[in-house]
Amino acid sequence: MIYFNYERFEDVRGYVAPIFRKGDIPSVHFVEDRISVGYKHVIKGFHGDEKTFKLFICLEGEVELREFNLKSKKWNTIRLAGNQNLMALVMPNTLNAHQVLSDKAIILYKWSHVYTSPEKQFSVYPLDTNFIDKPWPLDGVILSDRDQTAPTFAKWTDKYYGGLYGKF
Length: 168
Description:
Order of helices and strands: EEEEEEEEEEEEHH
Helix content: under 10%
Strand order of the largest sheet: 1-9-6-11-4
Shape: globular
Number of helices: 2
CATH architecture: Sandwich
Largest sheet: 5 strands, antiparallel
CATH superfamily: Jelly Rolls
Number of domains: 1
CATH class: Mainly Beta
Radius of gyration: 16 Å
Distance between the termini: 18 Å
Number of strands: 12
């Protein structure tokens, strides 16, 4: 995960912030923007694929964003909040998830490839205690049906990659 600060002009009327300019990340061409709205305790992920860069910007509220890089086998965690000037770039071959810590959070994220379907993404159960590096900050989590039924990391690697890190 790579972190970026962005400029913010603020006065009594509010603020304006250019969050992305062509050329800011020279090797990445973004083709789709998405908004994710979530509520306290919600966890979205772990998802990813082999080709997509994702740039996460928290517009409102606060989230804990986690990633697991399948190539380096390393964890990264960052808290993003709407009152920060911070964004995070998640690389391809990385599983990412976030938990909403505030009452509501809005995340803008930019994708380097158009989203197609859940079947074409990696999905791993976000509460897999044999996989995650530490417990999530909030108990009483809320998951989507997709995330609730996602395989554990061990089952996912066995099914798709012939064993733990078989392809990687």
